[in-house]
Amino acid sequence: MERASKRAGNTWLFLAKAAFVAVIMLVFQYGQIIFYEETRFYFWGNNVILLLYAANLFFSCRIYRGMSFGSVGRQESILSWILCLLITNGFQYLLLSLLVAGMLPIYGFLAILATQIVLVIPLIFLIDALYYHLHPAHKAIIIYGSKEKAHVYSTIIKKHRKKFQISQVLSQNEPFEDLIRCIDESESVFFLDVEGINRDSLFEYCFRHEKHTYILPSFTGVLLNTAEISWISNTPMFMPKTPDIDPVQKFTKRCMDVLASLLAIILLSWLMLIIWAAIRISDRGPAVYKQVRVTKGGKHFVLFKFRSMRLDAESDGMPRLSPEGDDRVTPVGRFIRKTRIDELPQLFNVLFGTMSLVGPRPERPEIAEQYEKTYPNFSLRTKVKAGVTGYAQIYGKYNTAPDEKLFLDIMYIETFSVWQDVKLILQTLKVVFMPSSTEGISEDSTTAMR
Description:
Layout: H1 2-35, H2 43-64, H3 74-99, H4 106-134, E1 138-144, H5 147-158, E2 164-171, H6 176-184, E3 188-192, H7 199-208, E4 212-215, H8 219-225, E5 228-232, E6 235-239, H9 247-267, H10 269-283, E7 288-294, E8 300-306, H11 331-338, H12 346-352, E9 356-358, H13 365-374, E10 387-389, H14 391-395, H15 402-414, H16 418-432
Parallel strand pairs: 1-2, 1-3, 3-4, 9-10
Antiparallel strand pairs: 5-6, 7-8
Helix pairs in contact: 1-4, 2-3, 3-4, 8-15, 9-12
């Protein structure tokens, strides 16, 4: 009965998503007819145009997780769809202009985009409400091995009240029978740093009884996630990938870095000039800040950023990350940090070859050294060249803990491809508009260590 109800719910959700996409495509099609009569072709030509629009919409949706209702908040869903529509409609506008051998009037494109956004916002609220109606919050438990991580992650999980109702937080050292009884009474189970002889038995029990299982990854788990299967006679074995990029991929990545950074510098030169002038006028100090960072092989390089702090920000000689509400940040600096504009000079680092567009975020040598004392594997992030954007920058935050940052960067290294770099660059546009990504560390800290 429960499975049938779940299947019916998923069917309704699928139909709602299909209707959502149909509305978007109909608005585009009628907008094209109204504003761009010269682009109306014969029957099959119009169908091909609409098919290309659907393919481009699907591509953009995959990049920005447009259909992840229930997995992301409404605000993020709205932002995702605005970017999806902007890219999809922009591509289609250029395509239609190319077909008629001349640039079409921009007002039609803007009118179609505005109409779609006006319709999309209430539809997102409706589908989001439908999702939670069909998928009410699961009764969940947390089983932990470390009290410290239990406190940190249970706080994070409890914020998602629409998805999970945490009934109990249990130590892995509780009697095995008690843990099994609690699992039986729950729909979802979170395992946080669980080790010991009972771990595999608990995992297997959840799998056998079809419980929704969430496991906090370990370093080994991250490697196994991307490992290949190697057969030794009739025995399958995991073979983690070696953290290296082959010469062809290196050459392609470098070409992409040079071309993209050069194009971005040309297109954004006006904005960089405005920011440079604003910083110079505000406190008469230098606009560009130079700082030593760590890149591939542990080598040091000079990173360029627009200066966002006072000139005496580290007059005590102690390297530190910026806490929330940092009074060292200037008024201009607060804006450029929130919008990530302070990182634009790093395009010159990419052009000169000291950084890549995509890669692990470069740390300061002193802070990296502190992290490595607690997490010796932290240095593995430097197996590839440091980047302006990447997994940790997109899926993490400024204050993401170093062990989580390590996992994200290792995932990037292990799954590297040029196509993945393209997707991460496009996803960076979304992060720029998410203020939470720049949250500072706590006021009594100098690093992101918890």
